[in-house]
Every structure is written in C-alpha cells, then in structure tokens.
Amino acid sequence: MAENNRLVTVAALQFACTDDISTNVATAERLVRAAHQKGANIVLIQSQTHSDSLFTDVGPPNYIVYAPVNEVWMCGQFIDTFWFTSQELFEGYYFCQAQKEDFFHRAKPYQGHPTIVRMQNLAKELGVVIPVSFFEEANNAHYNSVAVIDADGTDLGLYRKSHIPDGPGYQEKFYFNPGDTGFKVFQTKYAKIGVAICWDQWFPEAARAMALQGAEVLFYPTAIGSEPQDDGLDSRDHWRRVMQGHAGANVVPLVASNRIGKEIIETEHGNSEITFYGYSFIAGPTGELVASAGDKEEAVLVAQFDLDKIKSKRHSWGVYRDRRPDLYKVLLTLDGTNPIW
C-alpha cells in the first residue's frame, strides 16, 4: 500500500517587542517574509543558537527538522505549506504588568482591525496560515483574542482566551473578560489547527478539547518571562515541559511562540519589569523537543511533519479509543465534588 505524505511545515517567530505598533508589525512581517525570500520552500532563519548543522534528523521518521543557522539557506526539497505563529499581543509591550485605564485605548474591534487586515494580505501573498494575536474591543467587553488567517487571506474566525491570569506582573483580569468562544479548531487549507493563548497552555483540558475536535497541530502564542515579585522564580523549563506533555498526551505536534527582551511598565507603585525568556519551541507528537530557540535571540523555528503518519500513530496508540468520558464528570467541578452546572 502506498504511503500518504501530507507534509506540512510549521514555524514559530520569536522577537523583542517595542511599544510601537508599526515597528512590531513590520518586524513580524519581516520575519515571515524572510522565510519565503527568493521563493524558497524550506528556509533556515538566522539565530544565535550555536548550531553548525543545516539538517538535523531527530527521532522517528514522522518529521524533519531544519535547524537555525547563521545565514538564510535554501534547500531543494518540496514542502506543502508553512504555518506561522506569532507571539501573544505582539503589537506592543505586555501592558498587563500594570492596572491603568489608559491601556484600554490599545484595544480595537475585530472587524476591520488594521493588523489583521495587513496579515490577511500577507497570508494571501505568501500562501501561509497566520494566527494573529490582538487586544479586542467588543462593545463594552474586552478580550485577549486570536484571529486565524487562512492561506488565501480568508479570516477563518476568532478564538478568545479562556483562562485569564491575575498575579504580580500578569494582571490580565483587569483588562480581559473570560473568553466566550470555547476551544475551537480551524479547518485551514492544509489541516485542522487548534489555537489557544498563553495561560491556556497550562491546562491539559484545553489541549484535549482541541484534539478531540480534530486538531492536528496545536499553537500557543505566548508572553511569559520573569516574575516581578520573585527574582529566583524561573518557570521556563516547567512551561516547556507542560506543553510537551500536551503534545505527547494527544499525539499531535505543538508550536509555542514567546517573546524576548526586557519590558518596563510604569505602575501606581513604581516601575514593573519583566524579562521575557523566549525559548520558543516546536514539539513532536510524542512530546519530544524538535526545534528550540534561546532566551535572547530573534529566531524563526521551522519543522516539517507528515500528518498522515502521525494520524496513523495517534489512532493506533489507543489513547482516544480507551478514553472513559463517563468517568470524567469530576472535571466539571472546582472542588472535586459539586458540578458547576
């Protein structure tokens, strides 16, 4: 029997943000275009990862990794498509370090949002799928949202962040209503993808909900770094391992994109400072680390996956066949006893 080869390529962008929208959107576009300059299908983007290798073969033959090197290289192998994922709220600084009513002016309505329109044009031009993170104003409600743009520039719809954190440096509950879209899967030109946002990535229920709806790859735009109240707390490795677990438990690849750089926001108690630790990565379908960025360098990570081979592995592994939803009613409680509805 002939093997199917539904090869797809995913990419994660990592860069430092300024507090100027036009500069950040131009940086995002530059990095997307860098992957496609001169018409290349496979492009390795500059990164200071001390990697001398152009090609890395890791693990089982479900994927191929093209590791970052010091120049842009073009390889002569055909790939079906690129997906890109951007960072959370990449239009400016992560303003949720402070509770300031002025920051609500950064929100814009979903329809006609200028950054979404610009990314629609870029996606259509390059034939790529782009999830676009933005601060959404919806009448008197506000959401931390992602619009998913298909390869022909079509806006496939909206996901609103479900889990809203509230802690020192990450005071999102002041700005964002809890998302009301539920966890969603988007049928793009190339495959079904699930997209969730930052704090959502700590919840295995979110990843499983998207996988149960048929997501073949999970995407998590992110903004996470140091903890202003505790210089000794470094969540970087914990952050990665949790999502690697999602990939392995659901037998799907996973892409996480984080920002880098130091951002200082004036608060009512003085300045608050977060150093975003980057470490954007792509995980394979057994949770293995396939591609990884550092904590200070701008980067584009690229990996190719054969979704048909992964689908066969996912079906044969039995984790979906042997599920017992009838025993999971406790998940509908907060305290393990009383259902919330």
UniProtKB/TrEMBL annotation:
Alphabetized UniProt keyword annotations: Hydrolase
Protein name, entry field: CN hydrolase domain-containing protein
CN hydrolase domain boundaries: 8-307
GO terms under biological process: putrescine biosynthetic process from arginine
GO molecular function, a single term: N-carbamoylputrescine amidase activity
Domain of life: Eukaryota
SUPFAM superfamilies: Carbon-nitrogen hydrolase
Any one Pfam family match given in the protein's UniProt record, by short name: CN_hydrolase
Recorded family membership: Belongs to the carbon-nitrogen hydrolase superfamily.
Coiled coil among keywords: no
